[in-house]
Design brief:
By secondary structure, the chain is mainly α. It is built from 13 helices and no strands. It has one domain. The longest helix has 27 residues. 63% of the residues lie in helices and 0% in strands.
């Protein structure tokens, strides 16, 4: 199996697990507040996070190098977590995914002021087409827009902000810092708010929350492995497979039949996102490749995510020759003064050196 095929399969498995994770959130969301679900999801994720952090051998403190960027990322992740969980609870799965898939479009726009990315006409057209797809899904004027739709849009915006900040500061911040601050903020803020919405939970529902934390951990690790194995341009589009799982789970578990507008709008959004990914994969089309290097999963701050997710390993260029091993790098005093270009020669013999 080729590396790209292995990466694609790992990504498909990861996003299938993420879809299962979202099904459990939707089920519990019909009973409990998203604040309570986020709180317990983060609480039960801390043991997994602890084992992950124990493997971090990077020296340094837990103080962020860029505190203001980190504060903005943390706030965006907290808002995204609550908004996404609420949207899954009240909207059909396919419709929620269709709106969340607008994140690549928003990341493309945010990359201009945050990363200094230059977006040319073709990608601007893809962004406009994708936003038109969002309007097809929402159908303003034809259907009543609910708080669930607003929550999904908020999650798409917040997740894009959190992801683009990782792209900006991820090379300078420790992975532990980028992972720990949103989790800690979710734990503290949701812990304060849960007192106002708390509903007693039976053991079976607590066990489901533990499964949610475990699924997020496993899926996140699989995504990292997928990007390490294959090229980002191959792995990134696999995220759109979640819409298939959403349609199947929504129909067979929750009795949700996807509407024609949702199917059409999702197709438009996915097509525009794929075009942006393909454009960014071209060397002369993007300086930062913001979507390829940030877009893996909407950023909720409730599962373990490192700054390297979505960033492929640098592979050496087979055409380049290290300077230390190039034939011209070895000094050959016995060749000085010879006219023209000469082929590489062996080291001088002792009598030549004399």
């Amino acid at each position: 199996m080729s590396a790209n095929a292995r990466g694609a399969l790992l990504a498909l498995l990861a996003f299938a697990i993420f879809a299962t994770h979202d099904v459990l959130i939707k089920f519990l969301g019909g009973i409990y507040s998203p604040i309570q679900i986020v709180f317990y999801s983060v609480l039960l994720s801390f043991p997994l996070a602890t084992f992950t952090l124990m493997r971090d051998a990077t020296p340094g403190t837990l103080l962020p190098v860029h505190p203001w960027w980190m504060a903005l990322r943390t706030g965006a992740a907290v808002i995204t977590g609550v908004s996404a969980f609420y949207a899954f609870s009240v909207l059909p799965l396919a419709q929620t995914y269709a709106i969340l898939f607008a994140s690549p479009l928003l990341i493309t726009i945010l990359a201009i002021p945050v990363l200094g990315e230059k977006v040319r006409l073709r990608r601007w057209m893809a962004v406009l087409v994708g936003l038109a797809g969002v309007m097809i899904v929402l159908q303003p004027g034809a259907t009543e827009l609910t708080p669930g739709h607003l929550a999904a849009l908020t999650a798409a915006v917040g997740g894009s902000i959190a992801s683009i900040i990782v792209r900006k500061i991820g090379a300078e911040e420790r992975p532990v810092v980028l992972m720990l601050y949103p989790m800690a903020a979710n734990f503290v803020l949701m812990g304060i708010a849960v007192g106002f919405v708390y509903v007693p939970m039976p053991f079976t529902h607590l066990a489901m929350l533990a499964v949610i934390a475990a699924l997020a951990f496993v899926a996140g690790r699989l995504v990292i492995s997928a990007y390490n194995a294959g090229e980002a341009a191959i792995v990134a589009p696999m995220q759109y497979s979640q819409i298939i799982w959403a349609a199947l789970f929504g129909f067979f578990i929750f009795g949700e039949a996807p509407q024609a507008a949702t199917i059409l709008g999702a197709a438009v959004i996915i097509a525009s996102g794929l075009y942006i990914v393909l454009r960014e994969s071209k060397a002369d089309a993007s300086q930062n490749a913001p979507v390829l290097r940030t877009r893996t999963r909407f950023e909720t701050g409730t599962f373990l995510r490192t700054p390297r997710m979505g960033m492929p390993k640098r592979r050496p260029d087979p055409r380049s020759v290290p300077k230390t091993t190039a034939p011209s790098a070895t000094e050959r005093p016995h060749m000085r003064g010879l006219p023209g270009r000469v082929p590489p020669v062996a080291a001088p013999r002792s009598k030549d050196a004399e």
